[in-house]
Amino acid sequence: MYLYVMILLNGSVPMAFAGTEEPAAYGELISIGGIGPSVNGKLSSTIAEILETKLSIDSSRFYIKFYDVEEPYGPG
């Protein structure tokens, strides 16, 4: 069984979040299998910590959309 996760980051994008232009983040996490409610919670916590420590973005100022897509091809 193979699990894949793809993350794309774009910096310096002007955005307003919760009515202010303070630092914020929006993300989409696309996975081919392996994510769900419990995993999403763990990933959100880890991403929040990274955003706070590395980018000074408060954990209340980011939104992540999770997509779990089916494998488009058979094994092999």
From TrEMBL:
Give the E.C. number(s): 5.3.2.1, 5.3.3.12
Keywords (A to Z) from UniProt: Cytokine, Isomerase, Secreted, Signal
Signal peptide span per the entry?
Answer: 1-18
What EC class is this? isomerase
Q: Name one Pfam family in it.
A: MIF
The subcellular location is: Secreted
The UniProt entry lists the main location of this chain as secreted
What is the name of this protein? L-dopachrome isomerase
Q: State the organism named in the record.
A: Prunus dulcis
> What is the organism lineage in this UniProt record?
Eukaryota, Viridiplantae, Streptophyta, Embryophyta, Tracheophyta
